[in-house]
Design a protein that fits this description.
Layout lengths: L7 E4 L2 E4 L10 H5 L2 E9 L2 E2 L2 H14 L8 H15 L9 E8 L17 E8 H5 L5 H4 L1 E4 L21 H11 L6 E6 L5 E4 L3 E6 L2 E5 L8 H13 L3 E5 L3 H5 L3 E6 L3 E8 L2 E2 L7 H14 L3 H12 L14
Parallel strand pairs: 7-8, 7-14, 11-12
Antiparallel strand pairs: 1-2, 1-6, 3-4, 3-5, 5-6, 8-9, 10-11, 10-13, 13-14, 14-15
């Protein structure tokens, strides 16, 4: 993660050194958190569900009325160009973690500032996936302790969570509150204002009850690409029924097993809620079948790859209270 990494970033049509990719302090992204983003990953260096990520990005562009002239096809081409330009800087066992940021650009009162790009900004960064999942390998064996913080999810009638935006201070507060819970491997699990399970701070949530997958209704959550993959592709292949429904903490406490889905790690088991075991407190068989099916379809041992990266770093320890450190 040095300035001399050799990696380049796509910035409004140009490839610039990673250390020189900067957005103006007068950009609406800084003033209002007015930014859309997507983050993808590869398997064997091939992008996974890139078109689905871009489709979701452009739904946000439309709804937020961001004046972006770039088409989805051009965006996908720019992503692939960025990957190609950075390929030489990746190790053989690295995977590509793509981050696409789209900002509205300069606020109107700052339009006369010289030397700054006008209009929407498109930034595409490409860095090793292993950064994002560092220290997570052991979680495939031990599971996560989900913690319900006092911070609630913001419902769709106040701020549309189905648009993947950078206005996420409520996620950050949930992470900070969760970091105060004793022990390690605690990840936030937010409730909506009505007391129903919503989502994690960057991941979706499932429980298993009587061999049926249950996941929160999609109105107050980010409808994750990995979530959709489990619901629409993996579960049907395994003959598993899936139901979207209102879930309360009670339903989690009485579930047989639980797990979270997210792009970088695909799936991680949740073995306890607020310190109380879910089911027998161990990794469940349904999770194991789904993860095995995902690994087979991707041509990559999802858990083994992340564990291997941890071993190479000499770090098999936990990440601490949350994926974000506040102590």
């Amino acid at each position: 993660m040095t300035e001399k990494s050799g990696r380049v970033v796509y910035f409004n049509g140009k490839l610039v050194p990673e250390s020189e990719a900067r957005v103006s302090i007068y950009d609406s992204a800084l003033m209002f958190g007015d930014m859309l983003f997507e983050m993808t990953r590869s398997f064997n260096k091939q992008q996974f569900k890139l078109s689905e990520h871009i489709e979701r990005l452009y739904a946000g562009v439309k709804i937020l009325r961001i004046p972006l002239e770039m088409t989805p096809e051009q965006m996908e081409k720019a992503v692939n160009e960025t990957i190609e330009a950075n390929a030489v800087n990746f190790q053989d066992d690295d995977e590509h973690r793509i981050m696409i940021d789209v900002t509205r650009g300069l606020l109107g009162i700052y339009q006369d500032i010289g030397g700054v790009d006008k209009g929407a900004n498109v930034i595409i960064a490409d860095f090793p996936l292993r950064w994002t999942v560092a220290g997570m390998g052991h979680l495939f064996d031990t599971g996560i302790n989900a913690v319900i913080p006092s911070q609630r999810a913001i419902p769709g009638h106040l701020l549309e969570p189905k648009i993947k935006n950078r206005s996420r201070i409520h996620y950050q507060m949930a992470n900070i509150q969760t970091s105060m819970f004793a022990g390690d491997d605690n990840w936030a699990l937010l409730l909506d204002p009505e007391g129903f399970i919503a989502e994690g701070t960057g991941d979706n949530f499932f429980i298993v009850k009587d061999n049926v997958l249950l996941t929160p209704e999609p109105r107050n959550i980010l409808r994750g690409v990995s979530r959709a993959y489990v619901i629409e592709e993996l579960a049907p292949k395994l003959g598993l029924s899936v139901r979207e429904s209102n879930l309360e903490p009670y339903d989690v406490h009485t579930a047989d097993e639980a797990f979270m889905t997210g792009t970088p790690f695909c799936m991680l088991p949740v073995t306890s809620l607020d310190g109380l075991p879910i089911g027998n407190g161990k990794i469940g068989p349904v999770f194991g079948k789904l993860l095995a099916a995902w690994s087979k379809a991707a041509g990559v041992d999802v858990a083994g790859q992340i564990k291997g990266w941890d071993a190479a770093r000499g770090d098999s320890s936990s990440q601490g209270p949350t994926p974000y450190q506040f102590k």
